[in-house]
Specification:
Blueprint lengths: L2 H36 L26 H12 L5 H13 L1
Length: 95
């Protein structure tokens, strides 16, 4: 085989390997950035966006998506909502 042909083949393989490694690294970086933002617990935006159920459920109005996700836990653990807090405050004031 001629030296020029061999050089061309080796150069093509080396160039392909460099290109493949750069693309792999870029894809991994994009994936890790996307993973950080898509997991709702790691997202900083989730506490700013209104609940997706706010239009359908009266009790979801005013809640963020983060609050909505934890609402069932709060109810189960008896964490009072705004109305219950007002009623408790009135009871304390009336005593």
């Amino acid at each position: 085989m001629k030296t020029s042909t061999l050089s061309l083949i080796v150069g093509s393989i080396a160039g392909g390997a460099v290109l493949a490694s750069r693309m792999y690294k870029k894809k991994q970086t994009e994936k890790s950035e996307a993973d950080k933002d898509t997991h709702w617990r790691a997202s900083e935006k989730i506490d700013d966006i209104e609940s997706v159920y706010a239009e359908d459920d009266q009790e979801e109005k005013g809640l963020t998506q983060f609050d909505s996700a934890h609402r069932n836990d709060w109810i189960a653990n008896r964490i009072p909502d705004e109305q219950a807090r007002k009623e408790l405050e009135e009871l304390k004031n009336n005593q």
